[in-house]
Design goal:
heterodimer; A: nine-stranded mixed β-sheet; 9 helices; B: alpha+beta; six-stranded antiparallel barrel; four-stranded antiparallel β-sheet; 18 helices
Chain lengths: ~300, ~575
Amino acid sequence: MTPTALAAMRESRVGREDQQDHAERLARARNVLGLAERSTARRGSGIDRAVLRPVPATTASPEEKTSPVVRQEKESLLPGALLPVPDPLRMLFPQQGLRPGSSLAVTGPASTSMLLALAAAAAGESAWCAVAGLRDLGLRCALEAGLDPARLAIVPARETQMPKILSALVDGVGVLVLGPDLDLPPALWRSLADRARTRNALLLAAEPPGRSDLRLETAGSVWTGLSRGSGRLRSRRVDLTLCGRGIAGERHAQVILPHVTGALAAVPSSTRGTGSGQDARTTGTLTPLHTAARRAG
Amino acid sequence: MTVTTRIAVVTVPQWPLIAALERHRRAQEREQSESAEASTGAIPPGGPVVLLRRHRVIAVDEAAREAGALPGMRRRAARAACPEALLLEADEDAENALFELVAAAVDTIAAGVDTIRPGVLLMAAAGPARHQGGEEALAERIIDAVAEITGWSCSVGIADGPFAALLAADAGRIIHPGRSADYLAPHPVSALLRAPVGRGWGRAVTAARRAAADSGQASSRTGGSMQGTREALHETVDLLQRLGIRTLGDLAALEPAAVTDRFGPEVALLHLLARGLEANPPAAHHPAQPLLVEQVLDPPLERTDQAAFIARPLAEQLARELRGRGQACTRLQILARTENGGDLERTWRHDGALDVEDMVERIRWQCDGWITAARLGGTELGAITHLSLVPVQVMPAGLNAPGLWGGAGEEQHRAQRAFARAQALAGQDAVLVPVAVGGRLLAQETRLVPWREEKPAARPGPWPGALTGPTPATVLHDPVPLCLLDAEDRPVVVGARGLLSGVPTCLLLEEPSAALSRLGARPGTAWTVTGHSRPVLLDERWWSSEGHRAARLQLLARLGEGPEVALVALSRAGEWSLEGLYD
């Protein structure tokens, strides 16, 4: 066991145990287990880390417990039953996650980065991810989005054997990303979706030629940080529209993708709700950048 | 311990007999093709057939049964009862190998098929049934697929828990959810002989019996073999019958704790099965193959199913030799020579050690892929006549410890099988993995290498000028030429001091690009530039003669009234090209 793990363990022992509640101790124990596991595993990804994942505390009120409908929903919300989505998107998706075996179409001007962010979240800590049909995928962007390179495979677009390869992949991986370069025939898309359903694989597709369970539209991308001759691209605000199974009508959300770190982030609450980001750019962020650019010379 | 899932069981009735006949037929065909005189020893179709194992009859067909040959007879008695019968020796390995065909056929309908023993397949039924639109439809589809692909008839049973499904498969029945225990109860306790237990079952029973008998000179069989399991089951059933337990219902009525106390954990497993429950999810059963190694393939390998037969002996021999040296193979080369003298080779790399199963799968998929490719792309190479395995890289065995806890990498196993399959279909380049190596240009920062190939060493920086901050999601590996114009339509260039010659206002795309055409840009469309960064200079290899100077510019552009698009443009020798696109 590494010194870090021991230190964490010791800390957990001498800490004010009487004041720690159960959940905190559990989280700490999971952390120590994770550390020990990471220090002993020869193969980094050979282990199902779902058991080490912290479980969100459930806060169910008494009247919720009695209602069968709510209970059913709670059961399906057990960790592992649904694939996670990035935290800022949780309220957007029905049941705050993606069902394994379902398919999600992502379209619009921010589709590639959105696909990567969703794939990284859904792959989580144990699932494998394969990306097909993104010929010019920015690999660094994929890694910055949070995809684990040890559990990621890229399949270049090919013409002859592609249906067989995709069928093999959908049997094996937890998350399959289908890019726009594939030109999937509708029949192949249907058979892939069927196969994914039986194998509990999540299909994320850029431009599927057929129906998908959910459809996420990205639109209205507004960048901040760059002006005429100074600054740099810092972040982009994207409007999202989700429709499909489990959603009455449409749901809307606004997120930052990419954030400065390259990941997906929630829109800060101070600027949330301002209709277009144009105002924020001209008033809020431009001035300090401009002076900084002046000073840089 | 007491989880019950819907299980579908596919059985091929009289499988050892079918397999032995098939093997016999193939041997005959081979003989006939070798010696030109045909049809001297052909089997009369439908004639009586008697299957022997260790000089005891284990299976007979209808004709032989009518003539009086029954399972359990000695060879001589069977001969006497039915002198015209064809006597065949059972070969468990051939049964297993042939059963791969059935497994593959069922695999086309439902995934995750486990072979319990040759003749019996088991799978979870819930998902496939939902997919096929009901359990009846699933059963029909499986029967159709097996008949269509292999030509044999099978029967399907679906129930809660594997044992009930297995017994239901004989009658081709589907037991309603929750009724498995009721279905099992009237069956005689001898039905336990066919209980779906793994090959390891019965070790404790055998050991206990041996200890009781105190027979120092142990029999030659090992507890782990299928034969040992079968004998242990016989003994258990015999014991239960002597104790007055006649039906599975009698057995199920016993107290679980009492059964465990009296008989031990292995009989407790049978008790669990008899109650219609399921101990643990079905584990894959992998048969052993004979020690015969035949590297020269005669007849040559022309069909994909033949690959299954030749793969295992080769892998076994290799594994045996490696084991003798205390080594494990991490990289395996599979070489094939074809009729026309062509050589095919492919190297397989494994993160852990390749065991026999891994090797067999790879050989099989490899041959499968080659044959399919030959069929699709013409036959200039011909059939495979020679197959050999070369362990390219070995390491001391024992370094591949599995994880400490958790699901032991089931997902990893599945993914790796899928990747290996894809690579067998379309070559090593079909599955690539990214490796961050480092570099100034976006396209050079990471490299794609075939899965399980050696990864290139990282080139540690610093890389002055490398893009920081959010990186584009699309990086063009074949740069697309661009044209940047200022307000007076003069081209914007980066001067020697690293400054732009003008303020870019217009961006022209000169060649078609798939990534940009998705955003609606065609060659010749003009984009309005709404923002740009200062140029960042990249001094590539300034110390050597092949050095370049380049400049990078982040741009915000808009096509008509469309959304703003962020791009990264690269200037080299006065020419702009598109490096990346934030999409």
